[in-house]
Amino acid sequence: SYLSIETPVTMNKADGRDPPTPGNGWTNKDVPLMMYPQTQDGQVHLYQCHRRYIHTSHGWSRTGSACPNDAVAAASSGHKINHDDEAKVVRSLISQLSEKYYAKGWMPGTGGGMSIRIGSGTADDPFAVFSTPSGIQKEDMVGDDVFEQDIDQNVITPPITPGLKLSSMNNIWFVVYNLRPSTRCVIHTHSMYAQLATLLDPSEQSDIFQITHQEMIKGVGNHAYDSMLAIPIIDNQRSENLLAPDIEKVIQKYPKCNAVLVRRHGVYVWGDSWEEAKTRLESFDYLFETAVKMKSMGIDPGVVPKKKNADASTDTMECKENRAASKDVTIDDTIEPSKKRKRTDTELKNSKELTQTIDSEIMQYA
Fold first, then answer.
1. Could you tell me which of 96, 4, 111 has the C-alpha nearest to residue 54?
2. Residue 228: phi, psi to the nearest 5?
3. What is the DSSP string of 128-160?
């Protein structure tokens, strides 16, 4: 049963006052429906018209300017707001998403991180890059713990929490932003299946992860179910910042890639909006798990599955051969000789008619 915040409705007969309305007393005013979502009306109000994720004014860019859903997408993200207000939103969003990824096991300990870029790069609206700090528990991080930098990696606004430092992966955010000018968000996770996907080649010499014929391939963008999805793999380094040169090389080598796997480490994923980066990350991780489990079943995830021969005549010939091979074997042949009994004329007749019926059905497909 749900708890109720509402004050019991009682009449004060002593002074003749009307019964109190819900919320009066400790709030000194009515409590909005959002304040008690455990009630039915509160839940309807919450899930009918309020998004759970905090949205920035730069969201949903993956729909594209020519998309008929632009108006809906723009409305869902809110109107353009000033820099300071958007900075608060972005900080809160990074904190919210990081907590979600911690709960998924993708940012365990203090591992992993993310970055969001806002602005248009003009004098009136310069780029600003927000990113998670180093060595912080992601489930306990708040928006005020997030760093704000300019496009040259100068800190504009440090965290309010004292003692926090820039993450060792900080330079990697800017490698991606510089080489992919449309990118608005980069996410790095230490997902178990991301790092296991880099070990599908026991020799650890492969520099590409491949998977095909999976529905969730569509989720990474610009791919179909039967596309061969390829993700570059780089070797890990003793410190995260040392990965930047290799990440830069693979992005230049594979201009259309939107992710890089780090062997025995994790994955970096990016997108033209935080929603796109989030969607890709979740799709990639699903595919990594699929590949690992397929490999454990003896199936190579990067091999196109063999097509079944749909030729009915072939199936018919196999049926005939199987039938011919089993004609000389009866149920009685599986019984010990001492326990056999002589079949009656009726049983022999029924057995012969059954054999003729099966042969007749097989011939219909020949």
1. 96
2. -90, 105
3. EEEE-BSS--TTT--GGG-EEE-TTS-EEE--S
What are 60-112's pLDDT values in tens digits?
544 334 344 444 444 444 455 688 888 999 999 999 999 999 999 999 999 99
Q: What residue has token string 């930098």?
A: 149
Query: For 366, which DSSP code?
Result: -
Q: Which residue has the tokens 């009136």?
A: 124
> Which of 215, 318, 321, 361 does the annotation list as catalytic?
215
CB 321 within 8 A of CB 254: no
Active site residue 148: no
Q: pLDDT (tens digit, 9 = 90+) per residue, 278-315? A: 999 999 999 999 999 999 999 999 999 987 444 444 44
CB 116 within 8 A of CB 98: no
Contact 167, 181 (CB under 8 A): no
What per-residue confidence (pLDDT) applies to 233?
98
Q: How far apart are CA 171 and CA 134, in angstroms?
A: 13
Pairing of β 113-118 and β 185-189 = antiparallel
More confident site: 338 or 89 = 89
Cross-strand partners of 267: 189, 261
